[in-house]
Amino acid sequence: AQSVTQLDSQVPVFEEAPVELRCNYSSSVSVYLFWYVQYPNQGLQLLLKYLSGSTLVKGINGFEAEFNKSQTSFHLRKPSVHISDTAEYFCAVSGAGSYQLTFGKGTKLSVIP
Amino acid sequence: DAGVIQSPRHEVTEMGQEVTLRCKPISGHNSLFWYRQTMMRGLELLIYFNNNVPIDDSGMPEDRFSAKMPNASFSTLKIQPSEPRDSAVYFCASRTSGGKYEQYFGPGTRLTVT
């Protein structure tokens, strides 16, 4: 079984500042990792995913994440945030080849003008 | 593509009433998932269908909940009778099984049971 820990429930950050949203996972098997974003009153939208290959993955809206197997982490970063990035961000893990996605509790990113 | 379509977007009902939530997955996707999202418990998987067959319903909270997928383009989640603790946002998601592991989510149905 897999589990995901998102260490921060809320992250306030000023506009144009960098941000890092932290995600740690545990699993006894190889994993696939995902970040989703949820804007108010909307469904979840895929930001990026790691399946294999390069540990640095780039996603939509200028976000990127780095897979660190030794630290079992998959932190999400953006060098300069915009007001429109205000949303809730979910990290998710799937055992390789599994249908099941296990989600973290989410991190609410608030961008302050 | 229209994406995953869910209806209704909002549902308010009284305790004891039957509620039916509907989902149309993305065309060509053969896996479908129903999730429930609450503040207390986050996102929970309720049931997973593959090729219209329920594979894992271990997340269905109790017998009041049932789900069907009569064909590849339609699924329902029914709650009968509904209770206030069923109030939540219910999401449907779909994906292909051929190498792409990400799930695509619908906009959700916000259910309020009074």
Give a written overview of the molecule:
Chain A has 113 residues and is mainly beta. Chain A has strands at residues 3-5, 10-14, 19-21, 24-26, 31-38, 44-50, 56-58, 64-68, 73-78, 87-95, 102-103, 107-112. In chain A, strands 2, 5, 6, 10, 11 and 12 form a 6-stranded mixed sheet that branches. Chain B is an all-beta fold. Chain B has no helices and 11 strands. In chain B, strands 2, 4, 5, 6, 9, 10 and 11 form a 7-stranded mixed sheet that branches. Chain B is globular. Chain B starts with a strand and ends with a strand. The model of chain B has no long low-confidence stretch (mean pLDDT 94). The interface between A and B is medium-sized, with 20 and 21 residues.
Structural class of chain B: mainly beta
Total DSSP helices of chain B:
0
**Residue fraction in strands of chain B:** over 45%
Give the integer mean of the pLDDT values of chain B. Answer: 94
Unreliable spans of chain B:
none
Query: What is the tally of beta strands of chain B?
Result: 11
Q: Report the principal-axis shape of chain A.
A: globular
The end-to-end distance of chain B, rounded to whole angstroms, is 36 Å
Q: Quick check: average pLDDT of chain A?
A: 93
Global geometry of chain B? globular
Number of helices of chain A: 0
Most residues in contact: chain pair: A-B, 20 and 21 residues
In short:
By secondary structure, chain A is an all-beta fold.
Write the layout of secondary structure elements.
The complex is a heterodimer of chains A (113) and B (114).
Chain A: E1 3-5, E2 10-14, E3 19-21, E4 24-26, E5 31-38, E6 44-50, E7 56-58, E8 64-68, E9 73-78, E10 87-95, E11 102-103, E12 107-112
Parallel strand pairs in A: 2-12
Antiparallel strand pairs in A: 1-4, 3-9, 5-6, 5-10, 7-8, 8-9, 10-11, 10-12
Chain B: E1 5-7, E2 10-13, E3 19-24, E4 31-38, E5 42-50, E6 53-56, E7 65-71, E8 74-79, E9 88-95, E10 104-105, E11 109-113
Parallel strand pairs in B: 2-11
Antiparallel strand pairs in B: 1-3, 3-8, 4-5, 4-9, 5-6, 7-8, 9-10, 9-11
